[in-house]
Amino acid sequence: MTVLRKASSLYLLVFLVVCLAGSAFAQEITFSSTQFVPIEEQEFARNHLLAPFTEQTGIKVNLICEDDGPFFDRLTAEARAGKAVSDVFGTLHGNVPILVAEGVAADLGDITAIPGRTYISEFVNLGQMDGKQVYVPWMQATYVMMANKKALDYLPEGADLNALTYEELLEWAKVLYEETGGPKLGLPAGPSGLFGRMLHGYLYPSFTGYQVSAFNSPEAVAMWEYLKELNKYVHPSTGIWASMSDPLLFEEVWLAWDHTARLTAAVREKPEEFIAFPAPAGPKGRAFITVLTGIGVTKGSENFDAAMELIKYLTSPDVQVKVLEGTGFFPTTLEAVDHIPDGPEKILADAVSRQAASPDAIVSLLPVGLGGRTGEFVPLYVDTYQAIVVMNRPIQETLDAQWALLKDLFESMGAEYPNP
Amino acid sequence: MRLRKVAFYAVAILFAVWTILPIVLIALAALTPRQELYSWPRQFVPSTISLESFQFFVNSHGVLASTGRSVIVAVATVLIALLVGAPAGYALARFRFRGKEAFRIGILLTRMFPTSLLAIPLAVLYLKTNIYDTILGLAFMHAALAMPFVVLITSSLFLKVPYDLEEAAMTLGCSRIGAFARVSLPIALPSLVAAGIYTFVLSWNEVFASAVLTVHNRTLPAHIISTLNVSPLNFKFAGGFFMIIPALIFIFIVRRYLLSMWGVAINK
């Protein structure tokens, strides 16, 4: 019994110490983010971004990085209970409508008045919802292709790496398959992979000119036939991959498409082995997505001014350049765009700027206005891929059936189709 | 006869390998230098032992604190679950009362709804009652999750303790509570410990409630899932290895009691 007594008093003591330790700082804000989730990025953000901020301002920042699920659940619960534990939220543009619908986001006022930071105006407009400025453009990223330099020896004749077409990509993958004895092209089509973005934001607009409205058009049928053909040379593990860095490093594949942040680990590990290049072009042009993350303040936060301080700090030019070096996310202010640094990131930065600057560029925006059903958009494309390419169902019938669902999604939410 | 013995050992070895191999592999991978982990063909045994990934993980923000917190939450969960659950189990075993069967089934209700469904209402309730993001609050949640098992395990334990013994104690001058404390409890103690171990492991592994109900006071599994889910492979191995070490030590210490939960006696 004495053991139990000792154990319980020890427990009480530790409990008290932990409680006291939590309340030591004068001004403290909590920053909930679905970005900076990988452990190295978290350490980078804490030690190289937030620690200097605390030194400068005396405001301590508790960074909470988590997946979408717990992030939404917690912020929603806080809004419903009327107690804002989190002061600042940082997440993808596409996630913000859900937060706005739950009343999580506060109005930030006129952010173009913030001195020394010229936010890209298109992004500022995207951050306006329900007549309020709900976030400040924080970081941007895109998806590019990456190749092991060994694969360059097999590049089809006449093909320009920086102006590749989907036909040439198919030819390249085929040659690699035949010459090296196995599939060398990989796509992040696993459950937490981002392949769905390639379908709606890259392939569809490149082949049909539209992300949504030509979903079951003859051009779309041609695109799916192309994908079925391409799939013969795609690595069979594609269906489980979440990020292409590891398969590239393991040399399971030599050729991959993925989010810049999910390719950074590969170029960091072996910068001399990899080269990044723009996504291929289809009959209608070279479509690509620009991913935007926003950072805002929660409604009811008791530390609004401190939260705004943090937001201004995170979007200052030198911090934005630091973020690119640390995480592979690109700046959102004109001042910072001019200062892109050398290093492994340069490999990606070059591909990103070439992609953005290509003459046949089509910029795909993520859909807005789907509210609480935003999360249903991408799975419709991935399911279609499953049905047509993996299960070999008839193309036109599958497209017609999925088109009905897709159209219904936009109609029932009263949302417009995303550009283009 | 010999053939049976050979078959027996073959199966035993198969099970041992089945259990130990993943642990060995994860340990080796956690100690492999990062470069080598990505080289091809991969070596089964690394050329040098590297603690780099492991150290980076262990020293990264919040790992040690969340480990300590996990232990505290688990211990608190065991205390709460046993204090509330064991008397309920005793009552189920000893007394006849109206609605006993309904109670026995009803106790499983807390396991009927997936935690993900309850997440938002639970968090709202926790926020309103000011136990959100506290170690004690999380222990309540874990105790609630463990309760059905604790009640059902302890009720079957107390069923095995003969009521005659308690009656004998009472004829010799013990009160009802005295008979329970001096006779039934000591007999049931090893099995109660087993129920406690089960509760401890449940709390140690629980991730969903921990992720939603805490912000700053994360437990180890919640911390690991939020930091390693999309991290490079070497850190996943390091984190996985770090997570199993305490569990291995713990199981090694208490395995005697664990077996007694299924009524198997082993010699000391």
Structural commentary:
The complex is a heterodimer of chains A (420) and B (268). With 420 residues, chain A is α/β, with parallel strands linked by helices. Chain A is 46% helix and 15% strand. Chain A contains 16 helices and 11 strands. In chain A, strands 1, 2, 3, 6, 7, 8, 9, 10 and 11 form a 9-stranded mixed beta sheet that branches. Chain A has a two-stranded antiparallel sheet with strand order 4-5. In chain A, helix 2 links the parallel strand 1 and strand 2 (59-65). In chain A, helix 2 (39-57) packs antiparallel against helix 12, helix 7 packs across helix 8 (218-231) and helix 7 crosses helix 15 (377-390). The longest helix of chain A is centred in the first third of the chain and has 20 residues, at 2-21. Chain B is mainly α. Chain B has a single domain (51-261), classed as MetI-like (MetI-like fold, Orthogonal Bundle), CATH 1.10.3720.10. In chain B, helix 3 crosses helix 12 (233-261) and helix 4 runs parallel beside helix 7. The two termini of chain B are 29 Å apart. The A-B interface holds A 7-8, 11, 14-15, 18-19, 22, 30, 32, 37-40, 42-43, 46, 62, 64-67, 69-70, 73-74, 76-78, 80-81, 83, 85-86, 192, 242-243, 245-246, 249-251, 265, 269-270 and B 34-35, 38, 40, 56-57, 60-61, 68-69, 72, 75-76, 79, 116, 119-124, 126-128, 132-136, 211-212, 215-217, 225-233, 235.
